[in-house]
Specification:
With about 400 residues, the protein is α+β, with helices and mostly antiparallel strands. Helices cover about 20% and strands about 30% of the residues. The protein has helices at about 40-55, 90-95, 145-150, 175-185, 225-235, 260-265, 310-315, 355-360, 375-400, and strands at about 1-5, 10-15, 20-25, 30-40, 85, 125-130, 150, 160, 165-170, 195-200, 205-210, 215-220, 240-250, 250-255, 280-285, 290-295, 300-305, 325-335, 345-350, 370-375. Strands 5-19-18-20-16-17 form a six-stranded mixed beta sheet.
């Protein structure tokens, strides 16, 4: 007697003389005899049906194809050799490195608002007061605003003041201009006391563009304008904004990690904008997605949020796992940890543990991760049966006709 094996779930066909007994072996090793057929009916009905159902293809989602003796020779993936298997635990999450976009790199420019001073430029208007000498102070009056009564800085960076002549203002602070005027007026006035203030800020602007609510021009004044302030004044980030921005200062280009800035509170990313600076908020890369497959209610791709995405969030976006069909020990995350890695890293979550959902919430995913929920053994068994039942019906009808 010869025994033929079909499939990974234990489908056996025993050939004995002129009859064929088809047995199905369940996961417990018990053999269930399904039917007995004459040898001729086996040749004319079972073999064609096996080819029709696709012996070389998968007969059901997640179920291996009918295997031949040659297919068994193909080496199956072995943990440690073909891939690295890591169970998800609190220790793994504690040592997990947060994903950082490849476009982010360190720069030499310092951030922060410490020591910020506004530098006067062309078109700015100054208000100058010489105490006890009203003849040198232009009165504002009821119908004259401080802007109209002030001293306008010319395109060459100079302005004119009585007895002092042409005074350079561009690139200087109000304190530097005040000291310069006192030295010049000391030749004509005993111990002059001079006050200098900026009546209108007109010389400097910063530009915010890209994925913000209201792209446009923001004026620079004596109050430091940081990246966080600029984005807020521009209407905030749009839904399409990525997790990084590009700051251009003169010819220097600086990449800003917005996730560190807003979510992590990292003020080293919160640069102060200067006159002529350009801040561009990049659009989210369409390739940054998470793929959820297997026994979930809604398989597909999920956009990767600039604020990160946890394993629990990915499963929730897929409408959760199919509790009736999913294997609670078979939730995997397939990832390429480094671009040069030849072997993928597979993280496994055991949903049978009490704290497993907390681990799923804390486990951070990365763009292009694959989340796969395997089917329970009984689910794979039921799928094989559901695929074979139509064939058994045809065979049974054929047997009746033969009789």
């Amino acid at each position: 007697m010869k025994t033929l094996y079909f499939g990974a779930l234990g489908i056996r066909i025993h050939c004995e003389n002129l009859s064929v007994i088809t047995n199905l072996t369940n996961s417990s090793g018990h053999i269930m005899t399904m039917f007995r057929l004459p040898h001729k009916l086996f040749i004319f009905f079972i073999i064609p049906i096996l080819f029709i159902t696709g012996c070389s293809k998968i007969i059901a989602p997640g179920v291996p194809a009918f295997e031949s003796r040659y297919a068994k020779k193909v080496a199956r993936p072995v943990p440690g050799k073909d891939f690295k298997l890591i169970p998800i635990s609190s220790h793994v999450i504690a040592t997990q490195k947060r994903y950082t976009s490849k476009s982010i790199r360190r720069t030499g420019r310092r951030a922060g608002i410490g020591g910020y001073q506004y530098r006067i430029g062309p078109q700015d208007i100054l208000t100058i007061t010489v105490w006890d000498h009203p003849e040198l102070t232009i009165p504002a009056g009821e119908f004259r605003s401080p802007t109209a009564a002030g001293h306008k800085v010319g395109e060459d960076g100079f302005f004119f003041f009585p007895y002092a002549g042409r005074v350079k203002a561009a690139g200087r602070t109000t304190e530097q201009i005040r000291k310069d005027l006192e030295q010049r007026l000391a030749k004509f006035i005993t111990k002059p006391q001079v006050g200098v203030a900026i009546a209108a800020y007109r010389s400097q602007q910063a530009y915010v563009s890209g994925e913000v609510g209201k792209p446009g021009v923001l004026p620079i004044n004596d109050i430091p304008l940081t990246i966080r302030d600029a984005i807020a004044k521009a209407g905030g980030l749009s839904e399409k904004a990525s997790d990084y921005a590009l700051l251009t200062h003169h010819k220097q280009k600086i990449n800003i990690d917005l996730d560190k800035l807003f979510r992590g509170g990292d003020n080293t990313q919160n640069y102060v904008l200067r006159g002529g600076d350009s801040l561009y908020i990049a659009e989210k890369n369409g390739a940054d997605k998470i793929f959820v497959m297997g026994e979930v209610k809604k398989a597909g791709s999920i956009p990767f949020s600039r604020f990160g995405l946890s394993l629990a969030e990915a499963l929730s976006d897929a409408n959760g796992i199919n509790e009736e069909k999913a294997n609670p020990t078979g939730i995997f995350v397939v990832r390429q940890e480094n671009p040069n890695d030849k072997k993928p890293t597979v993280y496994q979550l055991q949903m049978t543990a009490v704290h497993s959902m907390l681990l799923a919430e804390q486990f951070a995913l990365r763009p292009r991760d694959i989340v796969y929920v395997t089917a329970a053994p009984v689910t794979r068994w039921n799928r094989v049966i559901s695929q074979l039942l139509p064939s058994f019906t045809v065979i049974s009808a054929s047997k009746n006709i033969a009789n």
